[in-house]
Amino acid sequence: MNLTSIPALQDNYIWILNNEQGDCLIVDPGEAAPVLATLEKNQWRPAAILLTHHHHDHVGGVKELLQNYPDLVVYGPQETQDKGTNRVVFEGDKVAILGLEFSVIATPGHTLGHISYYSEPYLFCGDTLFSGGCGRLFEGTPEQMFDSFQKLNQLPAETLVCCAHEYTLSNMKFAATLLPQDPQIAGYYHKIKELRAKNVVSLPVTLASERQINVFLRTQDAELQKVIGYETPPQHEWHVFATLREKKDRF
């Protein structure tokens, strides 16, 4: 399998996974033009679209893609039914495409119906888990997003996190502000600054790496808790997550 990230809109990535035969799947096509250009350039044949949630920058290209490929199967959560989804999926469902089996994982927080798709080693997690950060809470609660993070954190260390935005630099700047002496965060922040200065894509990343540098996956860290105002561990770990998200919103 070959994984390709297509830059779209302001800072989105549309993911395409293709096999040697030229069949492919498309994840969260926020616009159609760059996808159609990539398909034509590589002579790829789309087999399906995976949608994670209903926001326009993830579904805006579906209609035009269906006009060009009317037989496309579009998988998505209930909240995307009016965005072109013709196969609604729920947590625990299995989606078979290109010889792969994707597990559907409910990951509410960014939106209430947000889902992620996992087929080893690929995790397409939309706007839930970002490299170094997490999605904004437009519809869900901090507790829901925390629980979604715990689900994704159960996946193997070598999982490739294929999120939908190039937010890594700003996320690492936030993390470095909180924990400036942390060698892993400092080292990764430096690496990302160099990559982005050359306009190199910072994704995908491994879950193993995220466990080290993503503060939203380190809510049990006593030093981090202290830095954001907890002299003693809070009653619930999601409270740390909530405080981090509030601080990031104001950052």
Task: Estimate the mean pLDDT confidence.
Answer: 97
| Count of separate structural domains | 1
The share of residues in helices is 25-40%
Tell the overall outline. Answer: globular
What is the top-level CATH class? Alpha Beta
The number of distinct β-strands equals 14
In angstroms, what is the radius of gyration? Answer: 18 Å
Q: How many helices in DSSP terms?
A: 9
Query: In CATH terms, what is the fold-level topology?
Result: Metallo-beta-lactamase, Chain A
What is the CA–CA distance across the termini?
38 Å
CATH architecture: 4-Layer Sandwich
Low-confidence stretches: none
**Order of SSEs, N→C?**
EEEHEHHEEEEEEEEHEHHEHHH
Strand order of the largest sheet: 1-2-3-4-5-6
Structural class, judged by helices and strands? alpha/beta
Strand content: 15-25%
